[in-house]
User: Fold this.
Amino acid sequence: MANQKGGVGKTTTTLALAGLLADAGKRVLVVDLDPHGSMTSYFGYDPDTMEHSCYDLFQHSGFIPLSLPEKLLRDTSHENLKLLPASTALAVLERQSPGKGGLGLVITRTLGLLQDDFDFALIDSPPLLGVLMVNALAASEHLLIPVQTEFLALKGLERMVNTLKMINRSRKQTLPYSIVPTLFDRRTQASITALSMLKKQYPEMLWPAYIPVDTRLRDASRAGLVPSRFDKNSRAILAYRALLKHVLRVYLQSRPALSAEGAAMPTVSAPAAEIALDKQTASQ
Amino acid sequence: MSKDTQHAALQNYLDELLDDAVPEMQVEPALSRVAQSNPVQSVLHIDPSYKELTAPALTLPQLALREPLISEEQISRLPVSIGRLDTQDEDDVQSSAVASVETEAELGKVSWADSPFECLLFDVAGLALAVPLSALGTIYRFEADELTPLFGQPDWFLGILATPQGNLKVLETARWVMPERYTAGSRDNLKYVISINGCDWGLAVHQVRHAIRLQPDQVKWRTQRSQRAWLAGTVIEHMCALLDLEVLAQLITVKDKPHCAISAVTGKL
Assistant:
């Protein structure tokens, strides 16, 4: 989850999708790369006093000690969900190590070491372009860009898409992405206008629905529970469930060679998750 | 600063951050630390108690989440969707890798990858694999009832296939390359055995596709191979894993030796 604008719903989106996957029985890892540590706080940890966090991963010049990632994992309120926490120290990372070669692949390597322990990993990126965001993008197989449905957020989106192009150039790989309209309030003209502009400007990359404003998300945050555990029938969760199905579908479509022959495939078990989600929906 | 200059500076910054190379200095001290601790053990054996010390020096995972594995459809059919690697198997393979190949440095470069090379694509339990044609021997049709099983062999040994060129030991490739996803069904519908050049082993596979020509830069080469040393790299364009048959043959041979020794002793008794 990334966007160079803050407050667009990155953390909420990460936790909502992670919760749905975890509910479906998947082993899910959430990585908090934002020095603000919103996601870390969400689960009751204090990023200001965290002794060990993602920051530790960056202290080995791009080399990750084998057992370190596992030691950093923290439990959450969901039994299938683990957290790689953030700490405030992440904020000084850029100053300590400006543009060090290979430092953009620290999270990629970390996830490599944890790949047998999890089915899905979701990364909450900070809103600033820097070593942390580059790490988040480089480690991802699919990028979700949550965009608040308001005019100023559209400008931030343009910047994010340009950044992504440059990252793709450096990585010599194209990272597929989906734009997710968030905090949509149908009572306001600003939301309606922004959504209509998104449809016009990004017809192919836009998820053709939206996440509505929903106070249940805030309530879930206060309780420290993933939104689906707090209220699985809330409007926002129904929307997030649809988003997850969309993303899993896009994820497979971006690998036509795989879908066509059913041959080699990536590690994640998208259809299995989708089936599980369908079952959940049916049982409600 | 002009817009172009800013753009170039930013691109340089990103290029540098995403430079795939890890500074050599990070590897060397760790290796020398292991060598100092027990030079003989570090080269010839991996005592389990040394695993923690040696593994970080030799392990630098690639874009593991991007590596092609197994079809989604097949994953959903598996009784256990995604499980942990069997630790014992992994340790065995790792020990063999280190024992037989000695150091990471010897694995880094493959001689056939200096210029464009031909590869054969084939499938094993849904996993697409490629091998350089230069390392291939012959392709035989797999007939389960023509295999001669041998007592006391590892579970990945399917049996002996008599060929005009002599007896070929047949490896159950799926069990070897993805033990964590292996199911009894992985043994069904095997169709071919691909022999490895210069070695009396052959790989049992489900489907042989076609040959492709690859440029070295089409392959995402693995720079560290302490785990799955037989995996030379991945070819994103064809979503397949590229095997280093030379290393695979060494690993099989090393793992097979104890069993051969046991068989020989049993035979004498």
Remarks:
- The CA atoms of residues 15 and 226 of chain A lie 6 Å apart.
- The first strand of chain A starts at residue 28 and ends at 32.
- Chain A has 14 helices and six strands.
